[in-house]
Amino acid sequence: MVDEKRQWFKARVGFEPHETALDQSVCSHAILDEGYTEIADMGADPRTSDNPLYVGDPRVKFYAGANLVAPNGQPIGTLCVLDTKPRTLNDFQRQALQTLSRHVMMQLELRKKIRIEAALRAEMDHRVKNSFQTIASLLRMATRKVQDPDAKDVLALVERRFGAVASLHSELMGQGGRSKVQTTSYLEQLNKLLAASAPDHVTIFCAAEPGELQAVQASALGMIVSEFVANSIKHAFAVDRAGEIKISLRRQEGAEGWLLECRDNGCGHAGAVSGADSTGLGRMLMATAAEQLNGRLTTDFSPEGALLRVCFRD
Question: N or C: which end of the chain has fewer CB within 10 A?
């Protein structure tokens, strides 16, 4: 690459210096030519006969370079080969060097576009997170002002759903915008979200075996987990009863799929459907989420607590 005061080497093989001054630069001459420059014997060419590379040790005697041309038509350097003895390339070698130089520029432009896209994605992520925080604050304010119990339940449900979506967004952005999320880190995100809103007397544990989920699967799973936890807190641990809620996601034995288990050790359900709230909306959303997973949802209740299972395929 040739700039105002030096030439420097983005990549090199068999040539030690990282950069040289322009008085040692053959490339600074080459970029003034049309596309390709070949000097069979540098000692016999007036442009290079006094070049420090030629008179140095080891003495460079041969040079061939194909220009690296930016999209705006400006040559910025060369892809070149050197030798310590005079030589002449054949037509195939000259064509190959020029083809490789165009490939180098394609790679440089691709890296540039990737950097730009990464910067745009980071800015988008920042703006979305700010929007999430603003909406979450508005939901909390609205919940505090509303007196109607049913309306409070609905707002709380919306807030939980919104939190699950925010966790999913964070995980997706952490994966570079891919359409898949890592199970372990996603459950960790959910655990942080749920633990932050849980009362002091309820402890939440989330664990997952390593794997990947599609974004739509992760969204549905987040809904089920959020609703189970919220309604266990509401129904199973009333009157400050201490307890635990455990969430696990693991591979099904002998099957290509997953098993989600949500359980608590409370006794406040009193036969209510796990995840149900006073309006029945939570139960409906959990059933819908299980359908989105193409999964099978089952529940079990006992004096020792509630258990919910969802089996679904990859």
Answer: C
